[in-house]
């Protein structure tokens, strides 16, 4: 059984422990959903899934082992490409190119009326710009 209490990261996020069920060692910044196979587990988010529960905090935790998952506050998220401060950080819908399971994309805030599908895939707001794929603060 995993003790579920909030712990704080150095960056200002709050994490809990869940069982890594991504199928491989954990990768920091991976966006996850609740596991469909394991109680208290997490797996990589897929396209058209609007229910991210957090972001993996640490690298190298073996599949089946407890991993830290940031569920609130600030987290470093793995993006498929460049990010821009103040952009929307979100997961993918069918119309998006470049989907990679567990990764996010940076997109300018949609205008009114807001795109409902994209809003439900929101995981936060980009706090730091970067060039190319990699971790950016959200």
Description of the molecule:
It is a single chain. The protein is mainly beta and 138 residues long. The protein folds into two domains: 7-73, Head decoration protein D (Virus Head Decoration Protein, Chain: A); 77-137, no CATH class. Helices cover 4% and strands 34% of the residues. The protein has one helix at 116-120, and strands at residues 7-8, 13-20, 31-34, 41-44, 54-56, 66-73, 76-79, 88-90, 105-107, 122-125, 134-137.
Could you give a short description of this structure?
This protein is mainly beta. It has one helix spanning about 115-120; strands at about 5-10, 15-20, 30-35, 40-45, 55, 65-75, 75-80, 90, 105, 120-125, 135. The chain has one helix and eleven strands; from the N terminus they run βββββββββαββ.
Alpha-beta classification: mainly beta
Helix share, percent: under 10%
Going across the biggest sheet, name each strand in turn: 2-4-3-5-6
- Cα distance spanning the termini: 30 Å
Poorly predicted sequence stretches spanning 5 or more consecutive residues: none
Total domain modules = 2
The number of helices is 1
Query: What is the N-to-C order of secondary-structure elements (H for helix, E for strand)?
Result: EEEEEEEEEHEE
Chart the SSEs and their pairings.
Elements: E1 7-8, E2 13-20, E3 31-34, E4 41-44, E5 54-56, E6 66-73, E7 76-79, E8 88-90, E9 105-107, H1 116-120, E10 122-125, E11 134-137
Parallel strand pairs: 2-4
Antiparallel strand pairs: 1-2, 2-6, 3-4, 3-5, 5-6, 7-11, 8-9, 8-10
